[in-house]
TrEMBL record, chain A:
Residues annotated as transmembrane: none
Organism: Eleusine coracana subsp. coracana
Top-rank lineage group of the source organism: Eukaryota
Stored InterPro entries: Glutathione-S-Trfase_C-like, Glutathione-S-Trfase_C_sf, Glutathione_S-Trfase, Glutathione_S-Trfase_N, GST_C_Tau, Omega/Tau-like, Thioredoxin-like_sf
GO cellular component assignments: cytoplasm
Molecular function in Gene Ontology: glutathione transferase activity
GO terms (BP aspect): glutathione metabolic process; toxin catabolic process
UniProt EC number: 2.5.1.18
Entry protein name: glutathione transferase
Residue span, GST C-terminal domain: 97-228
UniProt keyword list: Transferase
GST N-terminal domain ranges (all copies): 12-91
UniProtKB/TrEMBL annotation, chain B:
Catalytic activity: RX + glutathione = an S-substituted glutathione + a halide anion + H(+)
Keyword tRNA-binding: no
EC code(s) of this entry: 2.5.1.18
One Pfam family here: GST_N_3
Domain GST C-terminal residues, every copy: 93-213
InterPro entries: Glutathione-S-Trfase_C-like, Glutathione-S-Trfase_C_sf, Glutathione_S-Trfase, Glutathione_S-Trfase_N, GST_C, GST_C_Tau, Omega/Tau-like, Thioredoxin-like_sf
Alphabetical keyword list: Transferase
Transmembrane segments annotated in the record for this chain: none
Name of the featured protein: glutathione transferase
Organism name: Eleusine coracana subsp. coracana
GO annotation terms (biological process): glutathione metabolic process
GO cellular component: cytoplasm
Amino acid sequence: MEKATENAKNPAPLKLLGSWASSYTHRVQLALRLKGLEFEYKEEDLGSKSEELLRLNPVHKKVPVLVHGGRALPESVVILQYLDDAWPETRPLLPADAFDRALARFWCHFADDKLGPAVGAVFASTGEEQEAAVRQVHENLALLEAELRDGAFRGRRFFGGDEVGFLDVVLGCGSYWLAVFEEVTGVRLVDADAFPLFHAWLREFEALDEVRETIPAVDRLLEYARGVRHMLLGLAGGAGAGGDATEAPAATAAPPAAAPPAAATDIAVDI
Amino acid sequence: MAEEIKKGLVLLDFWVSPFGQRCRIALAEKGLPYEYSEQELLGTKSELLLRSNPIHKKIPVLIHDGRPVNESLVILNYLEEAFPDAPPLLPADPYARAQARFWAAYSDKVYEVGSRLWKTKGEAQSQARAEMLQVLGNLDGELGEKPFFAGEKFGFVDLALVPFMPWLTPSFERYGGFSVAEVAPRLAAWADRCMERESVAKTLYPGEKVDEFITLLKKKYGIE
C-alpha cells in the first residue's frame, strides 16, 4: 500500500486519541490501516482524561477523537464516514449503492443500540438477570445470522462483500470481546452450531492482517475484562455501575445495568 | 405468488412522530413526490409495517420501489444518496458533513431525555432535567450566532432537530420546569426561523396538540 501517496493527497497530519481497550478506537485504527493512512496515536488514560481530549470532545468527552489538520472529529461512526468522504481515492468502507449504504447504516445502529448493550448486560450481571441478557444476545445474533443466511448479506464472505467494509469494521471491532467475555463469565455466547455463518465471518475477520495489527493480544484483553467484571459485580445493585472511572468495554458497549430505568422507556409507544 | 413491485416512494408514518416528520420535511425540501401512509401504532400494526421493519416494527419506514429503508437518520442519508439531482441537505465539504452527522445524531437526545421527563418522577426526573439543560446548552452553543446549524442555509441538522421543538414547548418545559427561551435563547429564535419555511410549517403540529398526545399516552400506559 502506497502509504505516503494516500496521505499526500490530503496531507494535513492525522492524530487519533484513543484507548487501547476501546473497540470504538479499534474501529478507527482498523479503518485507517485498511485505507493505508498514516496517523499518530495518543493513548488516553480514561481514568484521568487529558485537557486535550476534553477540549476536542467537549460534548461527550470520549475516545476516539480523530484530529485532522487541527480539526476534531468524535464518534467512531462519524469518523469512518469522514474517512470515506475526505479520501475518496482510498479503499471505500461504505458500499457504493445507496440502498446497500442504508442497510450498512441500519445494521451499524443495530450493533451499537441492541447487540452491544445486550453483550454488555451479560458481562455486568449474574444469575437470572444474566440468563435473560444471554437470551437477548442470542436473539440479536439470530437476526444477523438470518441476514447472512437468507437476507441482505446472503452468500457473502464479509458483510461488505468480498472485502471488509463499514459494517465488518463496526461489528468486528467489538465481536472479539465475545470470546473474551465467554472466558471470563463462563457463558456461551457465540455457539458455532447455532450461529455458523456469524462464527465463520468472525474467524475470517480476525484472520486479516490489518485486524491482527489492531486488536490487542487476548491475554491483555482477558486480564482487563476480569478486572472490569470484578468491579461491575462489586458495584452491581448500586447506581451507575462502573461510573466514569474507566470506559470499560462493557461500559462503552452498554449503559451499566443500573442506568436510567429501562421500564420507563419500555412503556411508551416508540414513535 | 408474483407480487407487483410498487414504484416510487411510500412513507409509513404516524402523524405526530417527530422522526417521521424529519422524513416528511426532507422529502418536501427535495421536492420528491411520495405516498404518505398513516400507520396504526396504538392498536394493531399493519402487515405492511411488520413486513417492512420486522426487527424494530417502528415507523418511519421509507419504501422505495418496494424496498424498505428504516430509521429516520438512515432515511435522510438515503434520500441524499439515492436522489443526487434533488437539492442536497448535507454540505459538500467532508468536515462539515461530519459535523452535520454528529449533531443530527445528537439531536435524538432531546426526545430521549425529554421522554424521561414525562415518564418519570423524583430522582429519575431530576436527572433527566439536568441532562436536558445540558443538551439544550450544547445545541444552543453549537448554533451560536448562525441563522441555521450549517450557516446560511437550512439543512440536515435543522430538519433533524426542529420536529422536537413542539415537544419541548410546552410539554417538556412544563414537565421539566424550565424554559427554552431562557436556557437556550438562540435555539428558541432558530425554531421560529425554521417555522417560516413552508416544509416545516406544513409538517409540524402545534405544541398544544403534542401535549394532548402525551396526555393520551400517559393515560393509556397508566403513567401518573
